[in-house]
Amino acid sequence: MSQFFKFFFVAGFLFWNISSNAQNEAYASPIKQEIADTTFVNLKDFSSDFVYDMKYATEDNFLKAKVYDCAECFLRLKTVQALIAANNDFKKKGFKIKLYDCYRPLSIQKKMWEIVSNPKYVADPKKGSIHNRGGAVDISLVDAAGKEVEMGTTFDFFGIEASHNYTELPKEVKANRKFLKKIMIKNGFNSFDSEWWHYNLKTGLKDKVANQKWDCN
Ligand SMILES: [Zn+2]
């Protein structure tokens, strides 16, 4: 190869290399545009493996009022990631997470507190619930047939029977609660003694309280 052609060969190779790098860069950019893990996101944009029974988007709740405009599960990104990891563990055993409540605007927390002013069951809006911070979920499990697993009480049952410490329950119920708790704790959540359905993301306890309305479209 003459020096002349050698020059073009090397130059061409360099050009190809640079342009393909540029292409890789363009391709990688959506991944590189990482959002902060505290950003509020919609769970359904990240997974379609959850069952939804968002009680506050219906009248079937202790407020006896539909207080959410739509049945969406908004949470901070880190909560979504931990919840998906937990759901993957449940799926391996033939179950899925059923959601009752996720992020809850502070204004709704105030309405709840007016009806049930007992910190055992409803967080004082002055302090704010972890739900208001996008780090809490109210959940149960469904089996492969979509049937809800027996947990001993309904969601938002404000009584001792809903407590993790209550032992006067059938063996199966205690085992189901224990299973839920074990997997959730493994994936970064804390349980809440008086409500078997409530889980807080450990790293979400100090995030800011939010009162934003979500986009229902
Ligand atoms: Zn809760």
Automatic annotation (TrEMBL):
As given in the record, the signal peptide range reads 1-22
Residues involved in Zn(2+) binding: H131, D138, H198
GO molecular function annotation: D-Ala-D-Ala dipeptidase activity; metallopeptidase activity; zinc ion binding
Q: How is the cofactor bound?
A: Binds 1 zinc ion per subunit.
Q: Which InterPro entries match?
A: A_A_dipeptidase (IPR000755), Zn_M74/Hedgehog-like (IPR009045)
SUPFAM superfamilies noted in UniProt: Hedgehog/DD-peptidase (SSF55166)
Q: Which domain of life is it from?
A: Bacteria
The site (Transition state stabilizer) lies at R104
Q: How would you classify this enzyme at the top EC level?
A: hydrolase
Q: Name one GO biological process term.
A: proteolysis
Catalytic activity annotated for this protein?
D-alanyl-D-alanine + H2O = 2 D-alanine
**PANTHER family, alphabetized:** D-ALANYL-D-ALANINE DIPEPTIDASE (PTHR43126:SF1)
State the function annotated in the UniProt record: Catalyzes hydrolysis of the D-alanyl-D-alanine dipeptide.
Q: What HAMAP family does the entry give? A: A_A_dipeptidase (MF_01924)
Please identify the protein, giving its name as recorded. D-alanyl-D-alanine dipeptidase
- What organism is the protein native to? Flavobacterium cutihirudinis
